Every structure is written in structure tokens, then in C-alpha cells.
Amino acid sequence: MFIFERLVFYALWYNGAITVAERIYTLSYKFLLFDLDHTLLDFDTAEDIALTHFLEEQGVTEIQSYKDYYIPMNKGLWRDLEQGKITKSELVDTRFSHLFAHFGIEKDGAKLALLYQQHIAQQGQTYAGASELLDSLTAADYEIYGATNGITAIQTGRMAHSDIAPYFNHIFISEKMGTQKPEALFYEKIAEQIPDFDLSQALMIGDSLTADIAGANNAGLDSIWYNPKKLINTSSAQPTYTVSSYEEIKKLLL
After folding, report:
1. How far is CA 60 from CA 3, 16, 64, 67, 169, in A?
2. Contact 173, 141 (CB under 8 A)
């Protein structure tokens, strides 16, 4: 679609003159970029199991207290990474030293990171219905790609232990890409690596407004905000579509 035609189309869409079905038919999506954690992969379950094994290995007895501190702290570090306040290596190499320091214990964060990585990389739990969703989309001739802000060894391992890996043409991982969501560069590098990639035929699907949807906005991509908890969007990120279930994704795309 020429730029002028696309601008006219968007104007009609945002003014309600074109329906969702008409929009999808007109744009003819082909390339689906899926976020992994909290969209397809059950990160909360994976993290809980991995932390339990890791902390037991470290001789921790108050495991829940450690989890209660670590989980929100870790989420905050990932937000800082998205905003460019810290680097990936700073996140990885310091989060566990911060955790143990909070409980008065000095530990080497980089060494702990490698030990934790061995546990989390084995956790490939997915949400119910994820494989069925991808199977339906694959059967409809969509090209499916992963687009994740993550650590290469961890995400590669988790996907290998999951039941959804065969559906993906490729997994684009921020650490390997040298850039991350929500940076437009992340998507520009993806475009360079997908044969015959067309921005107007691409759709980003993910749960994070600040990473997935903001990234799609920055790159000029349409997006689906996967919002199973039906949260209110108070951010500046604007998804093209909002869904709360896999069935709604199917209704949009099939």
C-alpha cells in the first residue's frame, strides 16, 4: 500500500469509518511477531519453579521472603532496561547480588546469574491454548516469528523445552540483536532478516504496552495488545487492537 493510501486508510480507521474486519482484509497481514513471556510462555510459573530450585541450591530457607523481594525488584530492573536506564549486563549481573545483599549476604551476582540461568532455561511452560492458537495461524499461512526482550541462553532453552517452538520461523532475541523493544531499531533489524518483509503486512502481538505496543508504535507497525487481565491502558502506547483471549486473536485473524 502506498504511503498516501495508508495514511488515508488510518484516518478512516481512527474515525470509525472502517470496521475491524475491513481493516484486516485491506491490510492483509502475513508476518506475525509474537512476544513470548506473558503472551505465550507462562513466565510466572517458570520463574517460580526456577527460583525455588535456585534458592534451595544456595541454602536459602526463607524462600518465599526472597521471592517476595526479588520478583518486584526484577520487574523494576526490566522496566529500567526498556527505558534505557541500565544495560542488559547490569541487569543480569547485579539482580541476584542485590537480592542477597538485601538479606545481608554478599554474593557474586554474575556467578549467581549463570547458576539461575541453568534452572530457568529448563522451564518451557506455555499457557493453555497457546499451541492451538499457533497451529491455527500456521494452517492459515501466516509466518510466525518471536520478538522477545530476553537473554539468549534462557529464551533459547525455554523454547526448546516448550511445545510451541516448531511453529516459529525464527526467534528474535534482544540480547542477540543488540537492541530491544520498544526501540524502532529492534524492528528494523527484524525487517532486514525476514525475506520479502513488508511493514504494512506485519503485526506485533504482545502483553506489554511499554515494550510490545510502544515498540510497534515507534516502528510504524500495527499491534494487538494481549490483555487477559483486562487492564486499563493509562500509557501513551496505542494498540491497533485489544484482545483478552486467544479466541479473540483467532476471530481477528482467521
Report:
1. 58, 57, 10, 11, 41
2. no
Active-site positions? 35, 37
pTM of the model: 0.88
139-184 pLDDT, tens digit per residue, is 999 999 999 998 999 999 999 999 999 999 999 999 999 999 999 9
Question: CA 168 from chain center: how many Å?
Answer: 14
CA distances from 157 to 24, 160, 171 (A): 34, 5, 12
Name the grid cell of 16: 470509525
Burial class (CB in 10 A: 0-12, 13-18, 19+), 145: buried
Q: Which three three-digit cell numbers place residue 79?
A: 522496566
Can you point out the beta strands (E) in the chain?
Answer: 31-34, 143-148, 170-173, 202-206, 222-226, 241-243
Cell 537480592 sits on residue? 99
CB-CB contact of 155 with 189 (8 Å): no
Cβ contacts of residue 182 below 8 Å, gap of 6+?
A: 82, 210, 211, 212, 214, 215, 217, 218, 237
